[in-house]
Fold this sequence. Notes:
- It comes from Inhella gelatinilytica.
- The chain is α/β, with parallel strands linked by helices.
- The protein contains 5 helices and 5 strands, in the order αβαβαβαββα.
- The protein is globular.
Amino acid sequence: MLAAAGTASAAALEPGTLAPDIALPQANLPIGRLSDLRGRVVYLDFWASWCGPCRLSFPWMARLQANHQARGLQVLALNLDERRADADAFLARTPAAFGVAFDASGEGAKRFGVKGMPSSALIDANGRLLWQHRGFRLDEAPELERRIVEALPRQ
């Protein structure tokens, strides 16, 4: 699926633009589209079962969800594997304590201009893109979290 995402014609989106209202097939949340999460800040992560850094990011995203859900954060990981069984095997080894959806077509990644995995986007409560990020390293996690927390409503 990386090849399909890498050849997507869509360029990365500009911050401040309305995020594409992508479908979220088979989500483990009561939603069908990204717009169903309006009113919450969404950390949208694009991942695949073969992605090594994705394994590192899942425990961090679980902590992120647990620590900031009460302030309006929703972590949502959109899987791009062509075979659902591959994603399910990954999730059996690396559980997700946050929202997960499955997009074997890769359409969501194309609409966000994803060029590699993992890739992420932060979307504000009004559905506007704040920023996009490619890759994941544990040493950059504190800075990512700081930027996410900045976007959350003040307590």
